[in-house]
Amino acid sequence: MSESSASDIILASASPRRSELLEQIGVRFTILATDIDESRLNNESPDDYVSRLALEKSRAGFSRQDKALPSLGADTIVVCERQIFGKPKDQADAAAMLMALSGKVHTVMSAVAVSQGPCSSSRLTKTLVRFRTISQSECQTYWQTGEPQGKAGGYAIQGRGAIFVDHIEGSYSAVVGLPLSETAEILGEFGIPLWTPESAL
């Protein structure tokens, strides 16, 4: 994370994974985590739900600062057989999620939005992920690593959870938490450089 005086954007997220991905493409940012109501609206589709959360986070981040920098918000959900999996509440919830995903293909939806004043732009990415068959004991052991906590679907593809993944079709970075190609597109719309002299060192 860059010092606020040198930042180009606000990152409206406390996710260390999103910070790492932004640093990977040389974006200078200041973290300003937001706290919004993430309840799903009645009859809201998964596409609309995850897109709305990303946009609300970006707008909340913009409103909470005093420099009028563009604010980036993002959200990721897992969808399998019309069921949405967010972050597990506890061990039992995480195990239920993993067993529901076991041996199946699921969709990871990752939305990113940038807001600056009345202007906003967003993108939605869908990635197909296929899990091998996993056992209850593997779920229990995996929970003990601490990794499933705070992860949509109860797993981290960039960590130990990669051992469950048979195949991926789409954006790897979106499954981690931020679709970098789409993020770069939106940042370009707001004139945000991806690489600076400092980031190239």
Summarize the structure.
The protein is α/β, with parallel strands linked by helices and 201 residues long. The chain is built from seven helices and seven strands.
Provide a descriptive summary of the structure in words.
With 201 residues, the chain is of the alpha/beta class. The protein has a single domain, classed as Alpha-Beta Complex (Maf protein), CATH 3.90.950.10. 33% of the residues lie in helices and 24% in strands. It has seven helices and seven strands. Strands 1, 2, 3, 4, 5, 6 and 7 form a seven-stranded mixed β-sheet that branches. Helix 1 links the parallel strand 1 and strand 2. Helix 3 crosses helix 4. The longest helix has 18 residues.
